[in-house]
Amino acid sequence: MSSARSKDRDVTRTRVIAALPLIGVLVSFAILYRDVIAKLVFDWEHDDNYSHGFLIVPIALYFAWERRQQLLAALRQPSALGLVVLLGSIVTLVAGILGAELFLTRVSIVGVIAGGVLYVLGWQHLRILTLPIAFLLLMIPIPAIIFNQIAFPLQLQASRFGETALTLWGIPVLREGNVIVLANTTLEVAEACSGIRSLVSLLTLGIIYSYFTDQRQWVRVAVTLSTIPIAILSNGLRVAGIGVAAHYYGGEIATGFLHTFSGWVLFVVAFVFLFAVMRVIQALAPEHAPERAAVAPGARPANEIAI
Hints:
- The protein is mainly alpha-helical.
- It folds into 2 domains: about 35-140, no CATH class; about 145-285, no CATH class.
- The chain contains 12 helices and 3 strands, in the order H-H-H-H-H-H-H-H-H-E-E-E-H-H-H.
- A 3-stranded antiparallel β-sheet has the order 1-2-3, covered by helices on one side.
- A hairpin with a 4-residue loop joins strand 2 (about 180) and strand 3.
- The protein is elongated and about 85 Å long.
- The termini are far apart.
């Protein structure tokens, strides 16, 4: 009895000792990125463009957990290049802190994780974890200089779409840049209505939806890329709908409940389009399970040699 207890204690002690390096890495990571992660969570909470950030880490962890059998079967071959990536990411973190550049400090999180996996486990494990690690990039807010370069063209695109739709509806309209002038009111397609919020959220949804719906890589890429025109089209329909409502019921309706409610409708419509794209692709190129060639009783497969 005492021998069995002693053996159990030895096994427990061995597991604890084996887990110490991992615990040390996690503690070091938490200390190193404490302030960066705190500010990142703050932005998720207060910036509606990135409120989906709260979902990214749990989903990435699920993607990694789903690959656990592959990770256990993969050959462990630590690479020194991983140390280079790890140190380079830490340098990026320091540069971001000194330059007050939040994007650099946040991107370095992904670099540290990728470098750590490569240095400790090797290339096979990094290839298996490519999607979970790359998925983490969606939790990082886009730098303001890039955000503005994307948002303004989207504002103009939504304005043009709204103008065209209103004209086809028979409503007299004049557009000046991102300002739509109606007979009884004037609507401005502001940055918040540019559609970039729905674009980022829909891109995230597209990756998740395609991942769980189809196993083929090209289908997942195609559906994910389709979220870009879908988001632009859906936002254009939203602007046109608000314009129609403002023409018949006055400009006040555009800033009230309808404006908020149309945002939810926009996302539902976008998801319906996304669902339709997936169904069209699967109808045109159905996913077939590999079938084994039938072998007549007593016959040998063509590649089997009798000895």
